[in-house]
Amino acid sequence: MTFSLAGRCTESGQIGYVVATSSVCVGARVGAVADGVVVFSQARTDPRLHSVGLKAWRKAPGDAMAALNAMKAHAVALHWRQLGVFPMHGNAAQHTGASCLDHCGGLVGAHSMALGNFLGTDRVMPAMIDAFEASKGALAQRLLTAIRAGEAAGSEREPLQSASLVVMGADDLKEVDLRVDYDTDPLARMGGLLDDWLPKSAAYRTRALDPDNAPSSADVESR
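The chain above was modelled as a monomer; its predicted structure follows.
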């Protein structure tokens, strides 16, 4: 009972994902990003499959299908699993098991991939893809705009409770890593968190890469 979107920005070189669901703590269970690729395990989730997909990706960089097949091979009761692999470069791959609840499936755009199950309408995934591909600006904002479009197009059949938004930048540092674990309007809450975080993100990147010349956290937080 989840809908998600992975996206990439060819200008910044960033890749990331956003996900929302009607259960709590979706960020602990759905999605991982590393090494220029996003992997998903959702529906009846098994977060252990994320490390399987990432390990396979490192062995065969650029081969999303090989990573997906590794996840499928390790999955218990594959018919309950919804899996995806979305690379920074090249084609995406996804799987929706036969027991996943309708509306369900996956859809790939030019620079994005949507997955969903137990959706309110069959317009949710196309709405996310269309909104992402038409949007401009920071990748995190584009991902949030896209999932809000999916919410407006039908969302899930149950009220949302949690959301997660992650963007990987250069130097193996996450530009954004936000979670809403329990809220009556998690995507609205995520928007507030993102508005607060984005002006601070460059300073915290400097604290990681060049701490001698970085501002104090007190200075950053007072801005």
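The chain has one domain: 2-191.
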